[in-house]
Design a protein that fits this description.
The protein has about 210 residues and is mainly beta. The protein contains no helices and ten strands. The protein has an eight-stranded antiparallel β-barrel with strand order 3-4-5-6-7-8-9-10. Strand 9 and strand 10 form a beta hairpin.
């Protein structure tokens, strides 16, 4: 089973799951916990801290999947699986819509278990989320939870985990449980949701 730079019609995981990171990293229908991709959770941690959390559910659809046979011919430690695609969601009866994208790679580290270390990135309107962890069954991994290692924008201090579930060989449902979300603030210090509604200009005689 060599990886000879050929397109592969399946996902790997990651996720953003490090590998398939996202299906390694991630169309089908999915349940989203908010407008667009997420819902800010109003529940605070039991310890009384002000930490914010958010759950994001999306479906990852693989568009690029390529195995690379590196080193010794045939499947061997160090071979890689590269993947990328779109993240989609649906709300109720609405048509599926693209809300972001993902990409990543897995490096084979254990031939007996067909496992590897995967890294991936999910790109969403609020920022990026990075994922990392081990995947088993590359390039079509078993259900897994991988670590959220950081991000940008509202996810710049993100931590938590992403759980991946296989829907079809080319689509995966990803559930991001993100902690320490940082709401975007404007120059005046207000959150985007707190921004005042602009008042239409008034003109003399009207």
């Amino acid at each position: 089973m060599g990886f000879t730079r050929r397109p592969f019609p399946f996902l790997a995981v990651a996720v953003l799951g490090g590998s398939a990171v996202l299906a390694l990293i991630l169309p089908a229908s999915a349940e989203v916990a908010s407008q667009q991709t997420a819902i800010p959770a109003a529940t605070l941690p039991a310890d009384g801290s002000s930490e914010k959390s958010r759950t994001i559910r999306v479906v990852a659809g693989l568009q690029v999947g390529e195995e690379l046979d590196l080193g010794a011919p045939g499947r061997s430690v160090g071979d890689q699986f590269i993947f990328s695609g779109n993240l989609s969601s649906t709300r109720g009866s609405e048509e599926e819509r693209v809300v972001g994208r993902f990409g990543g790679f897995c490096v084979i580290t254990d031939l007996e278990r067909n496992a590897g270390q995967c890294s991936s990135t999910a790109v969403l309107p609020e920022g990026q989320i990075t994922v990392q962890g081990e995947q088993i069954g590359i390039p079509v991994p078993s259900p897994v939870s991988n670590a959220i290692t950081g991000g940008t924008g509202e996810f710049r201090k993100a931590r938590g985990q992403v759980t991946q579930r296989v829907l079809t060989p080319a689509t995966w449902q990803l559930t991001f449980e993100v902690l320490d979300v940082q709401p975007s603030r404007s120059r005046d210090g207000l959150n985007r949701s707190q921004q005042p509604t602009p008042t239409p200009p008034s003109f003399p005689g009207k």
